[in-house]
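Final report, results section. Input specification for complex C-07:
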Amino acid sequence: MTMSMALTRLYLDKATLIWNGNVVTGLDALANFFEMLPSSEFQVNMLDCQPVHGKIRVFQEQATPSQTTVLVVTSGIVKFDGNKQHYFNQNFLLSAHSTLNNTVWKIASDCFRFQDWASS
Amino acid sequence: MSDAHVGPGVRYTPYANPTYRRRDSFHRGDQTRGNMERERKPPEGGMEGNRQEGTSRTWFKITIPFGIKYDEKWLLNLIQSQCSVPFNPIKFHYEKMQAQFFVENASTAFELKKVSGKICNEDNESISIFVSPSPVPYFEQKEQKSTKVKLIKKTKIKEYEVPQQALDLQRLHSDPDVMSHDIEMGPNLRNCMAVSPRIHEENMPKVKSEGELDKVKGLEPEEMCADRNPLCTTFPDKSTNISSILELFPKLLRLDDHEVPPSIIFGIEAYKKLPVCKGSVFGSETLKNLILQFLQQYYWIYDYGDRQGLLVAYHDEACFSLTIPFNSEDPAPSSLGEYSKGSRNMKKLKDSILRVQLLKHTKRDIVDFLSVLPKTQHDLSSFVVDMCVQTEKMLCFSVNGVFKEVEGICQARVCAFTRIFIATPASNSSLCIVNDQLSVRDASPTVTQGAFSTPVPIPSSSSVPTISQEQQEMVQAFSTQSGMSLQWPKKCLHDSNWDYTRASQIFRSVHSEVWEFRPTCNQGPTRPLHEVIHRPDNKNSKGAKVLAIFIILVVLPLFSGM
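Structure output:
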């Protein structure tokens, strides 16, 4: 399994990534997108999270009970191969799916942006 | 089939004492490294002798996560047992938790990739293998230099640097000078001979395998005819063969007289580029209008009004938190003084009690907290919005922009922020905030320069002449009841000729949307502004009530005594 495939498995089927204004929806598109990205090294300098108010459901499916959702916010520095380093901001909405045996958290939405995106 | 275009295969033995440079230094796009630029090559695999940069070979790095647990010999034997081709691991080593080694052959790398998950350790846990293209592992320069010099001398004599000449590998490999050299690949080798490392005469394989093409790969041909070569023998079908060729020769534009689709070229590791960065993502024009209107209203109150006025914008059970960045290498107190006190950056803040305290919950707590943050002026024209989620019941979007501090010792300092709002739609096309996360940082110089270039339409007090005592009181009352700071009410009253009713009507018509935050999810009806102004008997005119009582109880008795 490649690294990008492993990353894609963290996302819900209908998840969306907005990467510096580029919208990527669905697992196939996500897999392609991550495959296309150069290798990177991240350094996280900030992390915060909040529970999303209970009645909000992200991508609620009929069959599942209400999902717990968490907002995760992070920022720091990233260096992609062949590019200068950038400060970035990223936020995730994580959605929990519980079965009888365990709970799985997956990314429902991912929003990433360089702080200096306009001059990139 | 003739083998006119390929030579003998090679066997590689581990190099002694190699040293490694960081991967970055090999990247093709990085101009500062000098000798990395690719050059156009004539078709048919021909090359221009001494201009060849022998840096883009088919080296692959094989990584075994958590490989540090395993003995080298045991691991390699295990992998070989499942691998359909023999492989020669170069420079096996452990790096952090991983085991790593290199192979110099794309087909070997392919086969090794397939082994991932098919092998298990003694605890029956499956072992993964990750494969990625790698720049040439860098070996001792001394050895390389001498070899390089020698070869250059030789090749000049041998005329291998004649351009436009189709490369005949057969010729090359039968050259005794080339064959006898242990040539190490490295980024500084500047001639075509660098294509062929360690060619030993005794290694004349019967199968004309893909391994031979590895040598040509460094030449970066743009056109090839593979169908006349015996390459096909190693692969079951033509399409696999073609894919392998394309993988090995990323710059190939034509193969067997057919154009290579750009999508195939594009996907290869060597050419990975970052996607172009774009601006705001709104999803639709309707959502754009909704969000922009919301932001205008929100920041109008946040910057110019009493922030208590934001109570109507939040859900009862809303959450808010604030962070400033923390760089563990530079943990000096931040210049973002007022914000750092409330920062809930969990990279820095480990105290679980504080973590709970700094997550503001309920709109009352949130608005009280916002009210003590420094006064600001946001540049709405700088806002970039990413609309992350939209469902019937929820909008999640992030806003990036800049603001200025407008009072205190840090006046005029420009800060950059990212704010994430999660909101539910409320009536009258407004939004009810359930989650709000703000992160603040110092703005970079380029950002600071561009900020606030659009003049902010706030009237200045200098445009209004001095006013009487009575007018002052009117301004004060208007300010208290509308929640707006003194400059605006003054201007508004002045423009309406100090007609209080008229002024309030003007204000209402201009800012009616502001007062129609009416979140149905949590609270009772909110009064629109005009009701607030014309009904003194409400919480906003507590002051008036006290004054009235004072007059009745204190002042009147004094008069009655006269």
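The beta strands of chain A are 11-19, 22-25, 40-51, 68-80, 86-98, 103-114. The two ends of chain A are 31 Å apart (CA to CA). This concludes the modelling results for the funded period.
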